[in-house]
Design a protein that fits this description.
It is a single chain. The protein has about 350 residues and is an alpha/beta fold. The N terminus is likely disordered. Bound molecules: 2-acetamido-2-deoxy-beta-D-glucopyranose (NAG) (3 copies). One 2-acetamido-2-deoxy-beta-D-glucopyranose binds next to loops. It comes from Rehmannia glutinosa (Chinese foxglove).
């Protein structure tokens, strides 16, 4: 999963490990051991040499390890924005273009792109990412080909969703906080001022009932803000593990079950749900364009429908920005979508 591959070799340093005492018995054993040690040393040297060559040659095409990518992309407080991408979402004028456009036309959101890590699930998505000069990481999963549009709830779709959860756990373990965002979420304002400061796990909703701490809110896994801590790392392990108890369900459905689990209460995670006024979607649109930060093409089946409505959404936003400030404030403009969605 982690293409870095180097840390085991350089960090482990097999040859530097002193011999365990029980091996140092007879002279014969000692002799064997020295040979073994020499072989291991040679092996390590060759490995390190290969690693150096690999890293040198790959720096040209930016095929960096996760460690370097996170370091380059992170904000000073070690926060990154993460999205996943596969081939189906990179066609011209597709979801990913709209996603990037939103950062450009959003109000003071362009700087956030510097902190975006695109996790590519197939080669074409990875190549496309590199061409767009973003931070790109190629996440491979054994035995799965993510190239084609993974249709909702097929085994490949489920694997893709679960791979994502496991990957995010690794990011947390490396000490990075993240905002995970699906690429069908438009970023129109900086979300950070609207996050809660008293929880390490907050997540958007399909529909928000009014109380951020009410577990009955319906979470949407397409957007969440998670701070690295023992609790969140434990929680991501628990979430990933829980897939075994709910076979055939995706991460969001399982979250909807385990949010009530005593384990979550016992570790003191304190899940909070984000208000759709700021973090809206087609399920429950944020009605006031003066307040919206992000809009998600959720409650929408089919890529074409999503693209159709997201285009209109971005046009709505541009129209809104072109209004006089006093008109924006007094008329509280709203969306003309969903249309094809929902
Ligand atoms: C954009 O952001 C600036 C600075 O925060 C603010 O003064 C301005 O009102 C915002 N414009 C809109 C349309 O939200
Ligand atoms: C994955 O699927 C794509 C499209 O069907 C195909 O072109 C590619 O060769 C496949 N890759 C692997 C590793 O099977
Ligand atoms: C996380 O857990 C480790 C090991 O249990 C402990 O040493 C460390 O202090 C904990 N960190 C925090 C922030 O709680």
């Amino acid at each position: 999963m982690d293409s870095e591959g180097g840390s085991n070799i350089t960090g482990g340093g097999v040859s530097q490990t002193p011999p365990p005492p029980e091996l140092g018995g007879s002279h014969h054993k000692n002799y064997l051991f020295r040979h073994l040690l020499r072989a291991l040393l040679l092996f390590t040297m060759v490995s390190v040499a290969c690693l150096v060559i690999f890293q040198t040659s790959s720096s040209g095409n930016e095929n960096l390890g996760l460690k370097q990518i996170l370091k380059r992309a992170a904000m000073p407080d070690k926060t990154v924005i993460i999205t996943t991408l596969n081939e189906a979402w990179i066609e011209p004028n597709s979801i990913f273009d709209l996603f990037l456009e939103s950062f450009k036309i959003g109000n003071q959101t362009l700087w956030l792109l510097k902190h975006l890590v695109v996790v590519a699930l197939d080669q074409r998505a990875f190549d496309h990412c590199l061409k767009t000069h973003l931070h790109c990481y190629f996440l491979t999963t054994e035995g799965v080909n993510f190239s084609e549009e993974a249709h909702f709830m097929t085994p490949d779709y489920l694997k893709m969703m679960w791979t994502r959860i496991d990957f995010l756990r690794i990011v947390l373990e490396r000490g990075y906080n993240f905002v995970f965002t699906d690429a069908d979420i438009m970023w129109l304002r900086n979300p950070f001022p609207h996050f809660y400061s008293d929880t390490n796990f907050q997540i958007s909703c399909d529909s928000f009932g009014g109380n951020p701490s009410d577990l009955n809110n319906a979470p949407n896994g397409g957007f969440n803000y998670v701070k690295s801590s023992n609790k969140t790392i434990e929680f991501y392990k628990f979430w990933y593990k829980s897939r075994e108890y709910y076979p055939g369900k995706h991460d969001q459905d399982v979250l909807n079950k385990i949010k009530y689990d005593p384990f979550v209460r016992d570790i003191g995670l304190g899940i909070k749900f984000l208000d759709t006024v700021y973090f809206g979607g087609f399920c429950q649109p944020s009605k006031d364009l003066n307040l919206v930060c992000t809009m998600h093409a959720n409650c929408c089946a089919g890529l074409d429908n999503k693209i159709h409505d997201l285009r209109i959404l971005l046009d709505d936003w541009k129209n809104y920005l072109s209004l006089q400030e006093d008109v924006r404030k007094t008329e509280t403009p709203s969306w003309s979508v969903p249309q094809s969605c929902g």
